[in-house]
């Protein structure tokens, strides 16, 4: 599967630090490198398709890693978002009874 894909492109794909810090930018670089390799005739259409799919998968990996780093507090403290990004509004009424 990786045979026929340029080594320089694979090196960029395996740069996990760059993927985690700038997922969208790195995916754009990977896609441009893949298109340039195809224009130069280094890869055929099938390999280009695989390279673009890998670039998108790498972007998703990078976004996931970026979210994990943010959740761990590597980018400073932030109030955690509630599930699905829905803001929870706290009322000023009585506390609900505790069962048990």
Q: What does the model show?
A:
The protein is mainly alpha-helical and 100 residues long. 58% of the residues lie in helices and 0% in strands. It contains 4 helices and no strands. The mean pLDDT is 82.
Helix content range: 55-70%
Overall pLDDT level: 82
* Tally of alpha and pi helices: 4
Largest sheet: none
Topology:
Elements: H1 7-13, H2 16-21, H3 23-40, H4 45-71
Helix pairs in contact: 3-4
What is shown here, in short?
Helices cover about 60% and strands about 0% of the residues. The chain has helices at about 5-15, 15-20, 25-40, 45-70.
Key features of this structure:
4 helices, mainly alpha
């Amino acid at each position: 599967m990786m045979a026929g894909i340029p080594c320089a492109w694979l090196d960029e794909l395996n740069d996990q630090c760059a993927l985690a810090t700038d997922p969208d930018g790195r995916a754009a670089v990977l896609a441009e490198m893949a298109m340039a390799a195809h224009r130069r005739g280094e890869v055929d259409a099938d390999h280009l398709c695989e390279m673009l799919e890998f670039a998108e998968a790498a972007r998703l990996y990078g976004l996931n890693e970026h979210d994990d780093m943010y959740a761990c507090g590597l980018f400073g403290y932030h109030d955690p978002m509630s599930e699905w990004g829905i803001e929870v509004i706290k009322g000023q009424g009585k506390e609900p009874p505790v069962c048990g």
